Amino acid sequence: MRFQEHAIEPVRGLPARLPPGESLLWQSGPAWKSYALRGTHLGWLVAYFAAMVLWYGAHAMRTRPAGAAVVATLQMAAVACVAVGLVGGFAWAVGRSTVYSITSRRLVMRVGIALPITIALPFACIAAADVKMFADGTGNILLTLKPEARAAYFLLWPHVRPWRLRRPQPLLRSVPDIAVVAPILARALAAAAVQPVTAIVAGADAGLRQPDAVLA
To answer: What CA–CA distance (Å, rounded) separates 188 from 71?
Structure first.
């Protein structure tokens, strides 16, 4: 695994042009609306703040004059809108700044909003890749690295499985058209495998694994 900071991209999402013999198979970034709902739990946050504003407004109406209660409730609502807006803006920025790339030899993640870095994951260091599909057609791809591969949790965040600090697992979040992307990654892993693999047809929550099993 290799981490690299960069300021200029000769190819979008990649720190350098691909070497001869390596081809770009797929490239995209997180669908920010899906990431906002599932990665930042924005829906739950909106529900929480809505309940808080309603409770605060009801309490203010019982304990303050009507005019003062309305002003206080509007102030609380404004604070809630700012908080929700910040989280939604973060999700949008993650979707805009992140580029996931699958080549014939590796998986590359360009991450970071203010200071972009490129994380290259050669297929040789990937032990397994598990896919979780969502109803809107997006999905997550969770990577399990081989024991000898090292990953830095805080460099990967938020593109990493939460709370797995000791053995971080890179996570491609809210990948659009996951039903198309998963077979692309599976075929690339199979082609790079050093031993025979078995192709299987996987369901919505099944995984694609290398080298013992991959998604057909």
So the answer is: 59
